Amino acid sequence: MEMEGKSKVVRSAEKLVVTAMAGRDASHDAEHAFRVRDLALSLASEEGLSSDPTSDSDSLEIVELAALFHDIGDYKYMKNSVEDTSVVERFLDEEGLQESKREKILSIIKGMGFKNEVSQTAPIKFPAEFGVVQDADRLDSIGAIGIARCFTYGGSVNQILHDPNIPPRQNLSKEKYMNKDEKQTTVNHFHEKLFKLKDLMKTEAGKRRAEKRHKFMQDFLREFYEEWEGKA
């Protein structure tokens, strides 16, 4: 996204993203946040969300800031493995955002992770801004970029690439999904999470885009297994 037309708070937010996410592996770095922001704004446009800078419920500003900040406090990168939104909260306070915007942004960030939906069976109610930000993050988790990110993260934590003797986990709970100590493989992540995301999209725009990315992953993994077994 070009600098022209950006508000002061968005420019400051971008700088914070670069600083706060510096040193991370490329699966959850600043570029991921920027891609999710761009995807979220694109989905928001398709879904008919509007911008009104004079309003305390400016949908596009809420979407943009939530998308930029969604992974700053990701539990996977916190020392105690607990999600931490304190950096984002401090930024929103210092920028003087209206309380209603602040609450919406933090609510999106705290509720959008797959871990919060992994064992859920009933559909949830959600505001439009939540849907486009979550869908954007999930779109960046699938398709060609999703594959690249998956193996990048697996390599960063020295995870096994694939082991036919370690099956994907079934009926995952939030706690089990977040357990870093349980031995797993990178390929199993496709079955435990990535292949499920297409059917968890909240917006019609997100559902449309997910179809192509989902198929790309299916084709990739089919080829992967054939090569692993020496058949291709």
TrEMBL record:
Q: Which InterPro entries does this UniProt record tie to the protein? A: HD/PDEase_dom, HD_domain
> Short name of one Pfam family for this protein?
HD
**Residue ranges annotated for the HD domain, each copy included:** 29-142
**Highest taxon of the source?**
Eukaryota
Q: What is this protein called?
A: HD domain-containing protein
User: Which lineage do the record's taxonomy fields give for this organism?
Assistant: Eukaryota, Viridiplantae, Streptophyta, Embryophyta, Tracheophyta
